[in-house]
Structure formats: C-alpha cells, structure tokens
Amino acid sequence: SVSNIVPESCLLIVVGLLVGGLIKGVGEKPPILKSDIFFLFLLPPIILDAGYFLPLRQFTENLGTILIFAVVGTLWNAFFLGGLMYAVCQLGGPGLNHIGLLANLLFGSIISAVDPVAVLAVFEEIHINELLHILVFGESLLNDAVTVVLYHLFEEFATFEQVTIIDIILGFLSFFVVSLGGVFVGVIYGLIAAFTSRFTSHIRVIEPLFVFLYSYMAYLSAELFHLSGIMALIASGVVMRPYVEANISHKSHTTIKYFLKMWSSVSETLIFIFLGVSTVAGHHYWNWTFVISTLLFCLIARVLGVLVLTWFINKFRIVKLTPKDQFIIAYGGLRGAIAFSLCYLLDYKHFGMRDMFLTAIITVIFFTVFVQGMTIRPLVDLLAVKKKQETKRSINEEIHTQFLDHLLTGIEDICGHYGHHHWKDKLNRFNKKYVKKCLIAGERSKEPQLIAFYHKMEMKQAIELVESGGIGKIPSAVSTVSIQNINPKTLPVERILPALSKDKEEEIRKILRNNLQKTRQRLRSYNRHTLVADPYEEAWNQMLLRRQKARQLEQKMNNYLTVPAHKLDSPTMSRARIGSDPLAYEPKADSENLPIITIDPASPQSPESVDLMNEEPKGCAGLPPSPEEDEEGLVMRVKEPSSPGTDDVFTPGTGDSPGNQRMLRCLSDPGPRPEPEEGEPFIPKGQ
Question: pTM score, two decimals?
Fold first, then answer.
C-alpha cells in the first residue's frame, strides 16, 4: 500500500539511507557508487532495455520536438544555470568567491540533464499517455550527447590558461562528432548482430547472447573514443530488433525480453540503493546559499525553457501541446544518478569545490525524486491528463493505420511535397528490396508481416482444435490453412504459384509500364498564374457552340413537324406580315428552295452529323401548301464530303448564313415545347 503513494525509486533511496546508516553505525566504511561501476555495469542494461523496446512510431513522429527539447533545452538550462550560479558566487561572500565561470558552467552542464533512469522509474508507474512519455523519456535519452560534450569541454577548458575562439568552434563541432559518431557506431553493431542472427538456426540456445554481446560492444566502443555510449546503445537496439526477431525462435525472443527487463530492473534498484548509501558515506560541504540557489534556478530554468520552446514548437505541430502537457513535461524533468556519477568523476586538483557540488546535486536529486516524483501522480489525476491504453491495438486498427500511411504518402507524391511519410516510404522500399534480403533468412524476408501473423493465428487455432477433440469437430469457418497445419505431412514444401512464360510476363510489365501513372515524379504545385494558355481553346469553344445551336434547331424542327399547322390568317393579316418582313415571307419561286437536310454517310444515326443547310417550313408565306409539296415533303440530300484542306473545327458553319437566320426567325414560336428529357439541363447552356 505504501508503493501506491510513494514511487519505488524513493523507497529504494530510503532503503539505501538505512543500509548506509547501519554500516556506518557498526564502524565500517559504507561503499560509494563509483563512476566506473555505474557507467560500465549499471547504466547499459537500462539504456539497452529502453532502446530495444523503444516505441519507434511515436519516437519518429515526434523526433523534431524531442531533439529541440534535448539539444536546445539542455543548452539553455546549462548556460542559464551556470551564468546565474556564477553571479551568486560573486555575490555570495568569501566562501564562494573563488569559484570561477568555467566551474559554474561545468556544474550547470552536469545538473541540467534530465535523467533517463529516474524518468523511467516514475513515469512507468503513473501510466502517462504515449505522447508525454516519449517526449520526456526521449529527451532524457538524447540529451546525453549534449551533456557529454559540455562536460568534457568545460573540463578541458579548466586546464587551459586561455580559451580562444578556435577552441570554442572546435567544441561546437565536437557535439556533432559525439552524437552522430555514437549513432554510427550503434548502427554498425546493430547490422552485424542482425547478420549474425541469420546463421543461428542450428544453435538456438545462444541466440540471445548475440543481442547482449553486440549491444555492449557498441557501448564500449563509443565510450572508448569519447562518443555518446547511450546514443550507440539506442541506435544498435533500434536497428537490430526487426531483423533479429525475424530470425530467432519464439523462445529466444521471450528470453531476450524477460532477461532485459530483469537486468534493467536489478540495475535500477542497485543505482537508487547506492545513491542512498553514498549520501551517508560521502564527504559533504553544505552551503545554504549555493544549495538553495541551485535548487531554485533549476526549477526556474526548466519551466522557462519548456514554455518558450513549446510556444515555438506549437507553430509547426499539428497536434498542439496543451498547457497541461507543458506542465507535465516541466514537472517531469527529474535528475538522477548520471549527474551524481559525472560529478564524482571530477578531479580535486582542478575542482576543489567538488564536495559542495556533490552536496548540491544530491539535494536536487532528492527533491526531484521525492517531491516531484511523489506529487506527479495526484497532479496527473487532478488535471485529468490522458492515461496510456493498456490494451493492444487490434488487427483492424493496424490495417487502417497502414492504409492511412499509404494514403498520406500518395497525397504527398501528388502534391509534390516530400514530407516524412514520403521518406518513410522510401526507406521501407529500400529496406524491403535490399536490406531484408541480406539480413533475414528464408522466406520471412519476402512474406508480409500481416500474412505471417495470419498464418501464426491459423496455426494456433488448428492446434487448439486438435487438442480439443480432433478434426471431426472442425467448424465451417476454419480455412484450409488450418486443416493443412493439422496434418503437416500434406503441407507442400513450397507454395505453388501460377507459371507465366517470360514473354507473357514481359508483355504485362510493358503494358503496366506504359499505362500506369508515374506518381513518383515531382509535380509542380498548382498556380493559376503559371498555367499555359491553350491555343485551340477558342476553336473548341466555337465548335461546341455550333453543336449546341444545331441541337436546339433540331429540337425546334421536331416540334414544328409534330405540331399541326395553324389556321389560315385573313388576307389583311397576311398582307401585314408580308409588309413587316417581306424577305422572310416571300413566296418560293421553284422547288429548289425546298427544305434540305444533309446527312453524313459515315454515321447517319448521329444527331451531330445532321447539318440543316436550308430548311423552310411550308406555310411560312401565309399560303396553303401545294399538293406537290405535300407529296414530296422534306427533301434529304447527302452531305458532300469536305475538301482535304478544310477543317470542321475552324471552318465557319452554314448555321451562320442569312437564310438560316431567316429560318430561325420563322421558327421563333413553333408551338408548345416538349418536356425536357432526363439527362438535359434545366436551362440549356448558351441561352
């Protein structure tokens, strides 16, 4: 019941204090946590466990935010704290005047870094949501490079008589060497471990040993060259895990998982117990001004850094960090044994104030672990911060997540924007095409993970069916894969694929290559000011207008031919109409002016091929039609083929002739319009 209120790390420190007091009480000298033991034996298992089981998706999606907090935030804390502590030392009296600027900056670089061991110990107990956990924990992992560089830099500068600008520039460049060099060493050892696991199918017992061996070799190699050992361990764990797990057996995977968890838990327990014992056993020099100023400025620097950096980060994030999130990030900046061990490594010869530094660091560690660690759980409940989901994601969620990843990658390709989805897809393609073939043995390098999981589930279901009573009770829902797995003798050695001849396969590839859209090409972004004008656009518009006029005229003619003729007007009305427009109502002189419909012989059924050359309805002149005209009706003539030099699009049509205009005026009121058809618009285009 006590562990529900007090974090485990606090209880372990209390146990260490009790053990140290007991040892000192019997007259023995308590052991002190030496830096070599801490950095070589206790820290690597915790970092390897964190790196090997790192939630890679959340880490990569928030990598920019984590790097800003880890690099810029740690630099801000170190210089802000070091500068203010130098001012306190200058104003603090005779006991602090001898501490110079470099010593204070070194102290600031030691105490400014968030400790991954303390963060893991506290955050795993409160079950905070994945975003906040990966932000604080990722910052504690990646700020190791900044801490190592600043520590060694100020330690070297303390031995110099004069620090030049060249030394400062070289120190700035050493940050990239330390961080990227550590990552490079880790990647190399991770690939070696993955390649080695390809050939361990006949010696399954020692498979887990290679994971621990190559990871520890990566850490030692990085520390040997003063690179970041923590970055090397994280990189090796992240790189080797997908390939190693594809090669090793299920029992080896279980062994690695639980041995790493046990190893890291033992190391964490020993670290916090040794912190308590070392507090009792170590030499301390208490200075109220220095210790209280250190504690106060640590809290102020952390809060200011988180607020300013989050304000900048939220300008670029889609999912913004709320004020509650900012409070948890600032409150979760715990210090731990890394700061204590780094301070313990200082040389008395150059840093005579080491005991005072150790006392201040232990005070800050105790305050952050006890006060902040004990109060963060009730504060999370009070603020109603989102907790972590304990259940695993279903296959449905996995499928939809992959679908959305492919969809966003396609959208980025179409837009011509190369975001992180595009580069992630490029990396996955390269991994599948080249790397997996070299590092994964057998068919597992080709089979998709989802299909492999499906076969695994089918095998499990088939085994359960056999154990429960044999094949006779197999339900209809079980697929043939389960039946095959029940009888392994009937399982084929290789999957039978439909055989295609090389010519047929090449023909299919050629068709796909020619017809599929090449979405990988970088496309220009849309801009109406950069669109090229189409020279044929005006001609196409004219052709469309002519076709529309022809359709309207055809509709009017159909209406006219189906509506009965009007009653004959009186002679007075006829004379009035002829007088108003004699050209439209002049009588026909001969039969040559009969209505003519020309038909294109290529497609006589097409309404677009009908060209109304000269059509005048009977009775337009106000006179009754003659019997000969009644018998003849409409005369249809075949359209003469156009000459080779003319074009239908650019040649003016006959619909613009004066005779056609007269005919349009004559047909201006042919009678009641028919009901519009279903596919036609309500208001015809162009009217």
Answer: 0.64
